[in-house]
Amino acid sequence: MSDCIGHSAPEPVFEEPWHAQVFALTVALNEAGRFSWSDWVARFSQTLRRNGLSRELDGGADYFDAWLETLEAILAEAGNASPQEVALVRRDWEEAYLSTPHGDPVHLAG
Question: What is the pTM of this model?
Answer without folding.
Answer: 0.69
